[in-house]
Structures are given as C-alpha cells and as structure tokens.
Amino acid sequence: MALDRPTSRLPKLPWISLVLLFLTYMTFGWLLYDWTRNREIWLMVAFAVVAMAAFVTYPSRSVSFGFGGFFKTDVRALILVIIGSIGSVILLTWVQFFVDAVVLCAAGLLVSLDLKTLGWGKVKSLLLIVVWQLLAAAAGLYAHYLYLFPPSNLPTYFYTDYWLQLLARLNVEFTNRLKS
C-alpha cells in the first residue's frame, strides 16, 4: 500500500540557482561598498538592478526593441557599425565592469529560466528576482560595513586576534608536551 505524500502549498523554487544569484549579488554589494560610500550611487545601482531583472525576465521585448528593423538601409547599417566599434573600444577599456555585468546578468538569467521551467509567470518571476537581488546586494553592503566597523559588543571569538592568540597558545602547549 503506497502512502500519499501531502502536497505542499509552497511553490517550487530553484534553490541552487537562487543561492548562486544571492552569492553573486552579495559579492556585488560587497564590492559596491568598497568602490563608493555614496548612498545616491547605491540608489542608482538599485534602480539598475531592477532594470537588469526586468531585462532578464522580459528578454524578447528588449532585444526586438533594440534591433528590430535596424538593418533595412545601408546608412543604418553603417551607423550600427560605427556605434558597435565605439562600443567595442569602451568595452575593452572597461573590461572589468562589463565582466561583472555579464556575471550578474547570467545569474539572473539562470534563475529566470529555472522559474520559467517551473511554470512561474513573468510578473511573479520579476518580483522574486528583484527582491532576491536587492536583498543580496544589501546583505553584501552590510557585511562589508560590519567587516570594516565591527560592533564592540561581539564575543571575542569573532575577532581574528582571538584565533591567532589561541593558535599560539595551542602551539606552545603542544611543543611543551613534546619536550617533556
């Protein structure tokens, strides 16, 4: 006799890709705090994160809007080649910025594809991705802040000096036991 498992009311989530997205954006938040402490820039980056999530969730509209019918004349094709070459120079100049952006987009695309595979709608996917990305970036910002300015009421084992002193004491005790 087979036992029926109760069905969960919680929606299925692609946890591996969500954890990867969280770690990616947490690293981005950590680096963002290192790059600047200007909160206005953080707000602009939050807007860019929302825009990137929208691009990842609705890719077909963005791509067709950007390139739809642009190659119909030779003048437009020439303009596109010139813009492409200028873009290539900018890309090669700021290669680290573009690599970071591609990694962030790839993590978002992975979650978006997994959610689409599980049957999530575009609006629900967008909301989940935006909230997850913003939480991860905020966690990275806060983690870097705590790294630079640890609160004074933490237990002593949170500080690296404690561990170094402990290792030194253990090493001395171990060498004393070997000598006797």
Written account of the structure:
The termini are far apart. This protein has 2 domains: 135 residues, no CATH class; 29 residues. The chain is built from 7 helices and no strands. It is mostly helical. Keywords: Membrane, Transmembrane, Transmembrane helix.
Note the topology.
Blueprint: H1 15-35, H2 39-57, H3 59-67, H4 74-93, H5 95-117, H6 122-148, H7 160-179
Helix pairs in contact: 1-5, 1-6, 2-5, 2-6, 5-6
Overall domain count: 2
Biggest beta-sheet profile: none
Counting DSSP H or I runs of 4 or more residues, the number of helices is 7
% residues in beta strands: under 5%
Task: State the end-to-end distance.
Answer: 67 Å
Number of strands: 0
Shape: extended
Helix content: over 70%
Low-confidence stretches: none
Average pLDDT value? 79
**By helix and strand content, what is the structural category?**
mainly alpha
Please write the string of helix (H) and strand (E) elements.
HHHHHHH
The value of Rg in angstroms is: 24 Å
Short description:
The protein contains seven helices and no strands. By secondary structure, it is mainly alpha-helical.
